[in-house]
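Structure ticket #2291
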Amino acid sequence: METGTQEAVASPSAALDGGPASLTFHGAAGTVTGSRFMVMTERSRVLVDAGLFQGAAVWRRHNWDPPFVDPALVDAVALTHAHLDHSGYLPVLARYGFRGRIICSDGTARLAAIVLRDAAHLQEEEAEHARSRGYSKHEDPRPLFDTADAEAAIALLHPVEMGTRHPVTSEVAVTLRPAGHILGSAFAELEVDGTRVLFSGDLGRPGHELLNPPPAPHPCDVAVVESTYGDEPHPGDSRDELAAVVKRTVARGGSCLLPAFAVDRTPVVVRTLARLRAEHRIPDVPVYVDSPMALRAWEVYREALAAHDPQLREDLRHDDLDWGRWVVEVTDREGSERLNDPPHPCVIVSASGMATGGRVLHHLRGMLPHPRHSVVLTGFQVPGTRGQALAEGARHLKIHGYYVPVRAEVVSLRGFSAHADADQVEAWLGHLPAPQVAYVVHGEPAAATALAERLEDHLGWNAVVPRYGERVRLS
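Resolution: structure written out below.
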């Protein structure tokens, strides 16, 4: 939820200027969020991803800018996966006239419906909370989009089969292939008026708890590749660190709060806790999963397993995915509120993973002031989020208009990331002959620059870090 007001859409003439095929970076350039890549030809407009900016206000404000193109002129959106920084702008496009197909995998369609409905509900709820509590600087705080906008976007989701070429217009065709990041995630191969363009989306890593790694991409003329971890390798297995923090927290009578992304990260963390408990490496305390969205998303994973989805790891075939009697699924508001001050040592897994909204904010407000508790960060923390502030040692955190002292232990575990690191991205791209150019996106400036330099030094590629709003020719 933001507190501005959306203006009118961009003028149609700005979108229909003709000319050779081009690519414009309307997001995920200069920052890690807001993926929006506009592919344009003389007669076609295809957007690859339509994500929200998250983190620092300087980027979040762009969510409220007039749409960068008249949405009614966009032929289609190719959606790589359901995370909000790739899908969360779809309801805004729908509000302002987009009626084209949103081409995605079946898994993405099912998860995106959950994610967008939840995002609309949270924004409506937070706007009302800000209005009733009086901590907004605007007299009438409003959500960026509401439930009606989300439903309009969901109605446009058009699932297609992975690995099959799908013509979008007479000039553009899309092929989606599994990316191994979350269920349904894909990298997109576009044919644009004779030019082959690869969009990595968010690339998964080998050894994911639930998913198979991405296959090798096909040769391309232009590559657009993510760089979330472009300047660092992942650490090793984080299970030992997780076991240690749970043990010492319970020993001092406290509870562990794990902010976790609802889609994919929550089941990965819970399955890890289950193994640690079975191995007697953590105390026998209950684990609460306090995220209705995570529970709904997990049902999509269960159904995909039952259908033998090839994206899921083979070793899951012999696992009924039962979280067991020791996992408590919290669905009601009253049960969630009781966990703001846990009555006994426990582990709480709650969304959102970067503490940008959701039930985890109430838990943080209740638990951060107490040294007996611990907060365990399990994923990438975008600059400008509460999660990043905690990771960097903040002594106070602003939540719902109040400053909360940080006295709980804070631990960052990087080993749970679902993104490929720099070594893994390079290895995946190393299957390709050198394209004409690679554009390095979806990373903070240092990470994007480091990956571009690595691709030039190690693979001999022409690698460029594009600017926000920059337009380049494809032919």
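Closing remark: Residues 1-16 have pLDDT under 50 and may be disordered.
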